[in-house]
Amino acid sequence: MPQYLKSAPTKTFADTAQRDVAERVHAIIDDIRQDGDVAVRRYAEQFDNWSPESYRLSDEEVERIMGTLDAQVIADIEFVQAQVRRFAQAQRDSLTDIEIETLPGVRLGQKHVPVRAAGAYIPGGKYPLTASAHMTIITAKVAGVPRVVACTPPIRGEIPAATIAAMKLAGADEIYVLGGVQAVAAMAVGTDTIAPVNLIAGPGNAYVAEAKRQLFGEVGIDLFAGPTEILIVADESADPFFTAVDLLSQAEHGPESPAVLVTTSRALGEQVIDWIERLLPNLPTRDYAEPAWRDWGQVIVADDLDEAYRIADEFAFEHVQIFTANPREALTRMHDYGALFLGEDTCVSYGDKVIGTNHVLPTLGAARYTGGLWVGKYLRTVTYQEITDDASSAKLGEICGRAARVEFFEGHARSGDARAWRHTGKTFGWIDDAHAVEASAR
């Protein structure tokens, strides 16, 4: 029976429904549908005080902006992007086209075809998430998407140079300094200057998330994003200092980001709580991390690792770190999570920033039914069929006729009948009647 050293509510998908946000987003999207670029500019001025001559950066402007950065910044971006690109390419290589023959002359095939255009939203706000450019743009390009549109907002009236560099080096075809609902809506519905895309990916605030929710169906999206989540499963071998540091590393994402420890050691749980209380006062991002830990942080003591893994699966959190004597056992013991980080040398921050796996991951329990963003999200798995054997076509035609009539689909049945009649000469009353009508007309 689990014991709670610190308890808190657990967020669900239903908690994301905010009527005022939904209504405001709906109004903005409608305005952009009707007024296009005029509405985009109106909202960019209203929300970001941003009204350049063009929101799209030219190649010359991008080069000039990149030139303001220290060479080490560029080198680090290139290193991280190489890791992301390598893993994305391995994912793409694992997806092969297939063709099989199920009956003589009956060939069924499957192809993985990239969408024609994708939109990448890279957040700005208090924290410019440069790494999101790697995750959304590189992955799309490795998938083979020919046109990738990337948008990021200005930050306090300035162009975020490192983010622009990341977008360019990742391979974005069009770069816009444009944020919020207006950016997402413009990419989705299109304007005179921004052609619409087929799929939009990338995290954002509540308004960006709501815009993606409302536009889903008209365009594809990666997933519905909620507050960042972290859960650590730990036994008595775990280091309480590292555990506390890593919990706070994700709590700083926002005041509603839950950080949860599930441990088999009561002593460890108490030490982690003590370390967090000691670390928080001097954390520069305390304004976010402190309310996140206060309102949403939990420390749960489980009877054993079996119970700990079961509890962790019930949370189905975005990020799960395993601080146990044998961390790799979680690969078979756990089922519902966005991404696993095995061992104390593998932190969520590596996944967020440098290691190469994608950091756009499911939250709010969505890990029960989906994984995170990956190269396959930008691909459409399509099928094709071909029959070149008369006997197989006739056989399928007869079975199709019978199966369709069970469902009262006479038109479907007749498509099958016609093939069986062509190849076998078998009599079907409706075909005879149709030919009789044709003959009488002549």
Number of strands: 14
Overall tally of domains? 3
Low-confidence stretches: none
Helix content: 40-55%
Rg, please?
27 Å
Instruction: Please state roughly what percent of the residues sit in beta strands, choosing from under 5%, 5-15%, 15-25%, 25-35%, 35-45% or over 45%.
Output: 15-25%
What's the shape?
A: globular
At the fourth level of CATH, the homologous superfamily of the largest domain is: Nitrogenase molybdenum iron protein domain
Q: How do the strands line up in the largest sheet?
A: 1-11-10-9-12-13
Architecture per CATH nomenclature, i.e. the level-2 architecture of the largest domain: 3-Layer(aba) Sandwich
What name does the CATH topology of the largest domain carry?
Answer: Rossmann fold
**What's the CATH class of the largest domain, please?**
Alpha Beta
What is the subunit arrangement here? single chain
How would you describe this protein?
By secondary structure, the chain is an alpha/beta fold. The chain has three domains: 3-14 and 227-372, 3-Layer(aba) Sandwich (Rossmann fold), CATH 3.40.50.1980; 36-222, Rossmann fold; 389-441, no CATH class. Helices cover 47% and strands 16% of the residues. It has helices at 19-35, 37-48, 59-66, 71-93, 131-143, 161-170, 180-189, 206-215, 240-251, 266-279, 286-296, 305-315, 330-333, 348-353, 390-406, 410-424, 429-441; strands at residues 3-6, 98-103, 106-114, 117-121, 147-152, 174-177, 199-201, 220-221, 230-234, 259-263, 298-301, 319-323, 339-342, 379-387. It has a six-stranded mixed β-sheet with strand order 1-11-10-9-12-13, with helices on both faces. Helix 1 crosses helix 8, helix 2 packs antiparallel against helix 7 (180-189) and helix 5 runs parallel beside helix 6. The model has no long low-confidence stretch (mean pLDDT 95).
